[in-house]
Amino acid sequence: EAQVTQNPRYLITVTGKKLTVTCSQNMNHEYMSWYRQDPGLGLRQIYYSMNVEVTDKGDVPEGYKVSRKEKRNFPLILESPSPNQTSLYFCASSLAHLNTEAFFGQGTRLTVV
Amino acid sequence: GQQVMQIPQYQHVQEGEDFTTYCNSSTTLSNIQWYKQRPGGHPVFLIQLVKSGEVKKQKRLTFQFGEAKKNSSLHITATQTTDVGTYFCAGPKAGGTSYGKLTFGQGTILTVHP
Distance between CA atoms of B19 and A102, rounded to whole angstroms? Predict the structure, then answer.
């Protein structure tokens, strides 16, 4: 089954404790991206990757890191989480950037206390 | 930077009434995509429009892309309770140096009362 898998689905952590949210897709998609969803703000792009070893900042990259060592995986790293990073996070992938639909993961609800 | 505004933010309708959400971009878009997110779920792709002035239909849903490729609309005829959710538009900016960025609108939350 074609899918985008995120882990964990739920996470409560403390300020400053490094964490990684994993994202994996099995569709051989080139383009992957991370979004955060906050009430009233819609989906805001954090980082995206056009292909392996090619990543770039989205609209809200501060406090986040990503890597794309393999085509299927695109982890999101929070080196020192802060409470303002409490949010619902979605990973998405698409065959190519333009003119192709994005497939979203199930989401990761992160709470930083 | 590019901004994509969506209105209204909320819409409450009685089942059977029509519903429209509007999407306006500050820059010309290469294409416009629409997604639906059910409560507690993840966004799911509905459709993509590419051409200026394009109109597409999916059963009770009608999607339009403006002539200037800066605005779009989604119209649902005779809403049903299964239409409940948040509708997002999204588009990559045409040209420029921000190739790769996809900007979403804030979404319209649709509630349908039976």
Answer: 25
- In the predicted model, what is the mean pLDDT of chain B? 93
Average pLDDT, chain A: 94
**Distant-in-sequence, close-in-space partners of B70: CB < 8 Å, separation ≥ 6:** B24, B25, B26, B27, B28, B29
Strands (E) across B28-84 are located at 32-37, 44-49, 55-58, 61-65, 71-76
| Residue carrying structure tokens 């999101």 | A76
CA distance B104 to chain A (A): 6
Which of B69, B102, B103 to mutate to probe the A interface, most A CBs <10 Å? B102
Which residue in chain B is spatially nearest to A56 when comparing CA positions? Answer: B100
Main-chain dihedrals φ then ψ at residue A84, nearest 5 degrees:
-75, 0
Higher pLDDT, A29 or B101: A29
Q: What's the gap in Å between the CA of B50 and the closest CA on chain A?
A: 8
- Interface contact A42-B9, CB threshold 8 A: no
Q: Is A63 exposed, middle or buried (0-12, 13-18, 19+ CB in 10 A)?
A: middle
Closest Cβ–Cβ partner in A44, A98, A104 for B92: A98
Q: Are B43 and B37 in contact (CB under 8 A)?
A: yes
* Tokens describing residue A39: 């009430």
